[in-house]
Specification:
single chain, alpha/beta, 15-stranded mixed β-sheet, 19 strands
Length: 482
């Protein structure tokens, strides 16, 4: 027997062991198993490298560490739940949403009343409001960003944090290792020198940024909580292009929210869960209460919210399943805004059923994509829905909003895109909002956006070049694994 025979045997054995790992240890979905098996079969060397970087799941050790550092604030859960149960008017307002509320509760999200919510559609508006709140901070600033760039807007926010840290305000910052790949560590060390605390989420091996075996798993959240009373989350990162300052992806249209009310608690809790893991901190809940991170909430408005988080540390894709519940709840209309539309079959089926049930569906994506291959794949999925009667719109610019609006009462704003990466691979958060006022307000924004859109009807898809259609088909094969 020659050496090539043994190479072939080793090749088959490795593929078989990886297959068993995907089936029994990682419990992957069938579509992911088929895609990775195809790659490993036709690209034996390159395929292994891709699998090591992008395919291997989080280790049992990492999953356990994340779980061990999670903070469960039972006392506040009970206090807010009792508030809701004792408020008869709240029960009446939410009587048609109890199924949705129960669904989110099963995924660890309590219902939080009395919230005032402000929308930001453009980066500069959000940053200006954030800088004002940072300037007025008295006790604490907890900040977590996927991208915190060392550019004009990044320096502006960093200078504001450094100033408050020097004044004695407790400043904590989490940045994602991959999202901040181009920001030098000396940029964040300036905050440490000023007295702030900084943690890198999933740092690379030996702190060499190009050697990161967790490259495929990113903390995509954007959370700020100030004095435990004001919270921000949504799609806008701290980087110049998110301010619309780069021509290729301009104008940049996004959605971020500022919230005052009891809904600040779960966003604070989400930050502290990540902080305890990233900073290896083991404070108890009572210690954070003593620090004033969970003060008595200010009743800011009449919106009820639930905050849902998800990540690769869980076998359940919480946000995706909550989205599916929203789609199946729809009676009249569904509005979707997302930069990428590459969902799995469960989400697609829920949307098809909504259309078949007579629900009006409008989907909006950017016409100026940041990643052309993902844009092609998104169009391949949208073609089917255009044929089924959905209205597809391409925004004249880059649309980065992650918004779902259902009927007259329900909507979601957060960090989660409608794709496999956000559903299964990233750490994400989204705020489920129960408010007729917020719903109506965002519908006006959506209608205004349509004026700046090009409709993508069935003729639009028929006119596509055959080469584009071929590329869509090829890239779609691997859309559920990266």
């Amino acid at each position: 027997m020659n050496v090539w025979f043994w190479v072939f045997i080793a090749y088959i054995s490795i593929n078989f062991l990886l297959f068993l790992s995907m089936v029994f240890l990682e419990r992957r979905k069938l579509s992911s198993i088929i895609s990775w098996t195809t790659i490993l079969t036709i690209l034996p060397i390159v395929g292994y490298l891709l699998y090591i970087v992008f395919g291997s799941g989080l280790s049992v050790r990492v999953r356990k560490m994340i779980a061990d550092h999670k903070l469960y604030e039972v006392e506040y859960d009970e206090a807010i739940a009792n508030y809701l149960l004792s408020d008869e008017s709240s029960k009446e307002k939410l009587k048609d949403e109890m199924g949705m509320i129960s669904c989110c509760y099963k995924y660890g999200s309590i219902i939080c009343p009395g919230n005032d919510i402000q929308f930001f559609l453009f980066g500069d508006d959000k940053i200006n409001a954030l800088l004002t709140d940072i300037e007025n901070a008295k006790e604490s600033i907890n900040m977590e960003y996927y991208i915190f760039a060392d550019d004009n807007v990044g320096k502006q926010v960093m200078d504001a944090l450094i100033k408050k840290a020097k004044e004695g305000v407790k400043v904590r910052l989490i940045y994602d290792s991959v999202g901040c790949l181009h920001a030098p560590r000396r940029f964040f060390r300036k905050l440490k020198k000023a007295g702030g605390e900084v943690a890198e989420f999933f740092p690379p091996f030996a702190h060499i940024r190009l050697i990161n075996l967790k490259l495929n798993y990113r903390n995509h959240k954007k959370i700020v909580v100030i004095d435990g009373k004001i919270a921000y989350t949504g799609g806008i990162n701290i980087r110049d292009d998110h301010m619309g300052r780069k021509k290729r992806v301009s104008p940049w249209r996004d959605c971020h929210i500022r919230m005052i009310g009891s809904g600040v608690y779960p966003l604070q809790n989400a930050f502290l869960n990540d902080w305890r893991y990233a900073n290896k901190e083991n404070f108890t809940a009572s210690k954070y209460v003593e620090e004033g991170l969970f003060p008595k909430p200010e009743i800011g408005g009449d919106a009820f919210v639930q905050v849902v988080c998800s990540g690769p540390d869980s076998e359940v894709q919480n946000i995706k399943e909550v989205y599916i519940k929203m789609l199946t709840n729809a009676k009249k209309s569904i509005l979707l805004q997302t930069p990428y539309f590459v969902p799995d079959e469960a989400f697609l089926s829920a949307l098809r059923i909504a259309l078949a049930s007579g629900v009006e569906v409008k989907i909006m994506l950017p016409s100026k994509p940041d990643y052309r291959t993902i844009f092609w794949v998104s169009l391949s999925y949208l073609k089917e829905f255009a044929e089924l009667g959905a209205e597809i719109y391409l925004y004249d610019g880059f649309l980065h909003s992650k918004v779902v609006v259902v009927d007259d009462m329900l909507m979601s704003v957060g960090t989660c895109n409608l794709d496999h990466r956000s559903f299964a691979l990233n750490f994400e958060d989204t705020v489920i909002i129960y408010s007729k006022q917020c719903n109506a307000q965002y519908r006006k924004y959506f209608d205004h956006d349509i004026v700046h859109c090009k409709p993508a009807d069935t003729m639009f898809f028929k006119r596509q070049r055959w080469l584009t259609k071929f590329a869509q088909a090829i890239f779609r094969l691997f859309s559920q694994i990266f």
